[in-house]
């Protein structure tokens, strides 16, 4: 759907058209119609207090298109605009590149030069008090780690201690290379554990509080989806008061919010609570919780991973025991504000209350997930996540939908602009709007501002219709032959996107001896370094899985072929997506289309979006799974993809790739 918007002029500020023109000229760009349409749409949504979803293809310049009206609104209302992203990479792009250039360009046209700041969750900042005081340790049981890992953690701890003496922000992302969660936890606290600036001896110089203070004084606050959800759903505000939110990478919003509200119960969470409560209460009371945790450990070790649809009696009794013994510990701790004049004791008590509350409340959620009259009435799903060599099994609980939370807590209080290159699944915004809770008429508008790329002339979508459907026993030999021939035609230059790490590794192992070009596989090194190597050496190929579907931006001749091994449906045994599918069906909907097909369409669109990253890029998207053109749902999936020229003829993509490879070789031969 395309909607024509006109800019709404303001009496004392330049129009968004004028500001956009100044900004584009300052960054050396050229006007793009999609960008103009988007900037006007965002301005009108803000003026009308109406939610807006904008699909803006790669190359549109959507960051400028939402930042310009956001800055203008902040100037006009004297309230900040919050911009939320899903990835650290986009946060850094906004704060390090886009916003500084924009502020400098617009400063002379506005009452003052626009200001901005980044704000993250408290866990991302070093806690000065915890770094210097006797705080209860967060270390997990030492026997879970071998001596080399313990030694590596020790070295990381030393690095953090040295960095703590010189950092000005305390932001974990400044630590390069990064450190493990195990090491970082010894220097950070959650919002629930924090003593508060007024009670903490280091409150006056707290990095998290200083970041919040800066955020309260600027025009644009850049944050992440998780913190946005915590702010919207928590009792106390985390972000400064605001009325407008821009959600970039909005296709990730539901998954990130779900992660925030997912609870976990395991021997580790229970034993941590026991250690935290330590000597603060009678040992016999703490022992009761410890024994309940050991009962849980034994149960989970013997149970198969997967959904727990019906609550076994013994598990129900164990969860009740954990709930009750955790509450006894909470009661034994006494008033929550006791020892407020003794920071050390207050810190220990706050940490104990936090761990106990998490154990108690999660057990309550799990028990409440059962006992409904029908599947349609169920609100949450419980599943057992099988353990690994490093972590024991854990019970998890998550809501079957977060649409109600988002509708009431996020969209009910603010004007929200949601944008991404992939929002219109099956050609409409309805699927994602329903997941966001925006199903009511008149609440929102959706527009597709297109892309400056000429998809039919620049890219071919080739579906290998002649291949067999993918099975569960790994990649068929025909698939390996097809991949080999395509890569040989392209002279390398291939990004292989696989539905699982097992498939990516199997293809890498099978093809390294068959190909004359370098072949990298995710896991060989850090993903960032692998992508860098792939981008810098044209013949190199890179195979991998999920993070590569959405995280690779390689313009130019190093990427001419994107191979997708199969339609990326969620695993049939995935507990959360399968439960959501069943829940939709129980309410009369099509569970497969609402959950599995939407998931696949989003990932396919994201994966296909890796090919064209600049106006001059050309190449082929090769999908080996014939279901993309033969299955009953194929139309929905195809309508979710950019409008590439389509074919099922194997000769056409091979010929096109050979031509592109020959063109790339010409300058070197000249």
Brief sketch in words of this structure:
The chain has 670 residues and is of the alpha/beta class. The relative contact order is 0.10. It catalyses: ATP + H2O = ADP + phosphate + H(+).
Architecture overview:
It is an enzyme of class 5 (isomerase). It catalyses: ATP + H2O = ADP + phosphate + H(+). Keywords: ATP-binding, Helicase, Hydrolase, Nucleotide-binding. This is ATP-dependent helicase DinG. It holds the Pfam family DEAD. By secondary structure, the protein is α/β, with parallel strands linked by helices. It has four domains: 186 residues, 3-Layer(aba) Sandwich (Rossmann fold); 67 residues, no CATH class; 126 residues, no CATH class; 211 residues, P-loop containing nucleotide triphosphate hydrolases (Rossmann fold, 3-Layer(aba) Sandwich), CATH 3.40.50.300. The chain is built from 26 helices and 18 strands. It has a seven-stranded parallel sheet with strand order 3-4-2-5-10-1-11, with helices on both faces. Strands 14-15-13-16-17-12-18 form a seven-stranded parallel sheet, with helices on both faces. A four-stranded antiparallel sheet has the order 6-9-8-7, sandwiched between helices. The protein is globular, with a radius of gyration of 27 Å. The protein starts with 15 loop residues before the first helix and ends with a helix. The N terminus is likely disordered.
